[in-house]
Structures are given as C-alpha cells and as structure tokens.
Amino acid sequence: MGIERGMVDPLRVSRKDFVRMGGLGVAAAVLGLEASADRAFADFKFASNPFTLGVASGDPLPDGVVLWTRLAPESGRLPNRRVRVRWKVAADENMRTVVKRGEVFTGPERGFAAHVDVRGLKSDREYYYRFRVGDYVSPVGRTRTTPGFGASPAALAFAFVSCQDYQNGFYAAYGAMARQEQDLDFVVHLGDYIYEYGPSETAVPGREHDGPEIITLADYRKRHALYKRDEDMREAHRMFPFVVTFDDHEVENNYADAIPEEGSETPTMRQFLRRRAAGYKAYYENMPLRPSSMPQGPDMRLYRRLNYGDLAQFSVLDTRQYRTDQPCGDGFVERCAAALSERQTMTGPEQERWLKEGMNRSQARWNVTAQQTMLAEYDFRAGPMESFNMDQWDGYVAARNRFIGFLNKARVRNPITLTGDIHSAWVHDLKTDFADETSKTVGTEFVGTSITSSFPGVFIPVVEAARPDNPHTKFFDGANRGYTRCDLNRERYLTTFKAVPTEPGQGSVVTPEATSTTLAAFVVENGRPGAVQVEGPTTATTSTQGETDRGYGRLTARENW
Ligand SMILES: [Fe+2]
Prior knowledge:
- The structure is a single chain.
- By secondary structure, this protein is an alpha/beta fold.
- The chain has two domains: 104 residues, Purple acid phosphatase-like, N-terminal (Immunoglobulin-like); 402 residues, Purple Acid Phosphatase, chain A, domain 2 (4-Layer Sandwich).
- Helices cover 18% and strands 25% of the residues.
- The protein is built from nine helices and 25 strands.
- The strands form four sheets. It has a ten-stranded mixed sheet. A seven-stranded mixed sheet has the order 13-14-16-18-20-19-21.
- A hairpin with a 2-residue loop joins strand 7 and strand 8.
- Helix 2 runs parallel beside helix 4 and helix 3 packs parallel to helix 5.
- The two termini are 34 Å apart.
- The site of fe (ii) ion (FE2) has 7 residues, from loops.
- It comes from uncultured Rubrobacteraceae bacterium.
- This is Phosphodiesterase/alkaline phosphatase D.
C-alpha cells in the first residue's frame, strides 16, 4: 500500500511546497516496504559464526529486559527462510543457573534480527544471557533489571552517549567505558547512531563508509551492520543495557517529520516517507527495543518512560518524527518571526501532553529528560548581532517556553535534561527567561560530547567568544570526544565528562585503544537547580578576532550536525 492518493501530487513536492501546504497527516500514510515472508522455518546450518554483530540488551524494567541479536555470518550467506534462535538467561556469568529460556524465529523479513522481551525476572538484579543457532553460541551478555516501582534505591550510575560518525574515528570511548565503568546500570544513547553519508575523503583510514549515501532498507541494514562490527561498541552493548533514541542521521540530516533536508536525494514526500520507513525499520531491527516500538511503515513510537524506583524517572523523547520544519531557512541565523511562532513544536502535541502528564504524576527525586538537540538558548554571535541554531530548540522558542514554563509552574522536582547532537560538551542553567540573567533557574542541562563525530577546532573560538552573551552557560568544551557519566543519589546529581585522546586540532579519534580521563565534573544538589563545577578547568581559552570570524564563517556554512 502506498501513500493515499488524491491528497497531493506525490511526484514532485519540494520541501518548501510541503511546508506551505501546512504539513499533511503524515501519520496516516502507511508504506508497505515488503511482503512478509511466509515461509516455513527450520534449523539452518550456518557455515560460519552468525553472531558477528554481537548481542545487546535494553529498556530495562523491574521484571524484564529486551535481549537482541542479529544474525550476520562473515560469509554474508543467509537462508531465504526463517531460522530458530534459542536464548537463555542465567543468574551467573557461566550460564549455570538458568532462570529463563526460550526460542524466537527470525528471517529475511526482519533482517535476521531477534528481539526477546524477557519478563518474570527479579528487580534490581544482574543477569547474563546468550543466544544459540545450531552449533553456534553467541558471546554472553550482561544486563540488569531496574528497582521495583515502590523501591527507594540509594544510588544510580549510568552514562549517556551520542553521535558516532564511523568516518571520524574509532569507538575508543565505548572501549574505555566498558573497561573503566563496569558499575553502570545502563547507557542512554541520544541519537546519530549511524550516519547516512557516502564515503568521505577526510575519513580516518580504515573507517570509510562502505557505500554511497543510504536510501533503501538494504542500504540502512548494511550500514548498521558496518557500525555494529566495531569491536568496542559490541563490547559496550554486551556489558550494559542500552536505552536508545534516534536523532536525524538514522534517516537523513536535519529532516523534520516528513520534510527531507534541502537538496535531499529523496526530495518528494513520497520518496522521503519511503526512506524514513526504511531507516526506522532498520533502526528497530538493530536496537534492543521492545516490540511496542516496532515501526508501522514510516511511523514509530519511540518516546517512552523509564523508572528507577523513586530515585529517577527518565522521559526519552523523539524530537524528529513530529517536529515542525526548521524555521528561517535552517542553519545558524538571526531569528525570523517563524522561530517565535506558537505553532513551532519539537515533540508534536501528543508527545508534549504525554511528557507533561508523566512529569505531573512523577514521584521521582530526579526527573530526567533524555533528548536530542540543545534545549537552552545559545547565541553563537559575539556582540550585538545574534545567531541561533535553527535545528535546536532555539528555532522552536515557543515550544521551549511551554516546556520550561511547565517545569516551573508544575514544580517538577529536580529537572535535568540530557542532550547530544552538537558533538561538544556543555552545561546550562535552564532559565524561565534566557534574556534575563536574573530570571529563575528551574533546571539543568548537560550536553554530552560525541563518541566520534567531529566538532571542528575552528568552531571553538566562536563559542568561546560568545560566552559573555550567554551567562546561563556554565561550561563548554569542543576539543574532546567521549561519554558522560552520571552518578545520582538522593542528595546530589554528579555529572562527569569523560574524554578519550583525539588527533590534535582535528578532534578525530585515531586510536582504537585508549583510556578515558575526566575533563570536568558538575554537581546539582537536591532542591537547588543549577550546576556547580567540582572538577576541571573553569576558564575558557582565548582567541583572536580573526580566528573567531573565520570560525563563524565555517560554522554558518556547515549543515551536517
Ligand atoms: Fe551528530
């Protein structure tokens, strides 16, 4: 079934034409990408190990967790029929005390991915799991359930990550995290898990993309497999349950709902929704997501909640699928009227209601929003001129005011926002009015740097020069790649920015094996919004006006965050 005809000529609708038409009912458009393969299953004998993409777990509950694997033998040879995958969960690493076991079937219609929604486990426990196909067994994964709904856990440790452009280097950050942070309860991924681009001339040697820009389901599946073959990332997935959400590059740079990016290879709505369906399907297939997140054509319910007893509640957002178009021509620009329009939304009305309802009902000490682009304002132009990133909440000012205004009025307890997207580390006070330094601080935003994706060194002086114009910003570092660790207890929220070595000036990760070091750390005290620095440098580097101007020119020319 294709998009419903008669609504619009689907053959040629440009991005801006589509906006003028006011955004059609995209959710209603359902694309069927492939007929379901209704073939008999059987035990298939693989000629080589099918577990080359590793194992993963995710979305922990008090009584369960999702287990994941995807069959991909080195030979690439897969049967044209369904395959039985056996799984088991044990209380010990040696898989002796088995507590659950079962089997699932997978096949070509689901990219040979297997998802198991295991239930009936005990809360706040470590578990181990393994898959078997024929004579082949997978590595043993480790996972962990969350404390029960009525529980009052004393502490939680997790890390958050984002943006892992394969071409900008090795996943040393994942390797370091797996070796150095073994006590983490889970890892949150804030998006840009893959990048859609073709090979880059500036790719780190050995890390080039293996084909042109990806568009079809086969392309997206292949790209996910390329990324998953990275040993360090496989180890991180094996070690920790993940809570994932996507940003733009899992489909296409800077798309907004059904609107592709300017100059897209899939310029019509029909082409783009077909592509979005392919990107979402491959994303689901490759992530440890619950079947409730399984996409239907171009639609996928990804926003969801995670509770950690009464210590923390996580609202995991999707700010791509339902957002209005980036205003004022996108990019880094002065705001035009459209950026201030009440119609602007990042979440869509339904998700916005869901977010507020969840926070209203929350009993949690810390109320964490895990999402994609920077929520706090940042004026990137030093001096009287202004420049804002239209892909961030700065292009959606009314939506931000609604959200921060709600946090304030509803007296949401200890709001914390976690953000990715911009490939650099930041700390912001969330203000009721960013234009008024003396206005109330209602929460704190921590923006984590990328696993690999680049933040060109020439942009650093631009941000630094604009710091005096943005007094709510407590920290910025653009030179490092890594991950961010959060340690919560009932009295404080400690955020530690961890960095891995990069090529000087380039910011790319050129060494696969590395140790992470602490770049800076910040504490938020219970009941006192706003972060206090407890470790790391407090003064910014200085640069010349020439460097700042040059960097600003490059920043405004770049589009592919
Ligand atoms: Fe990114």
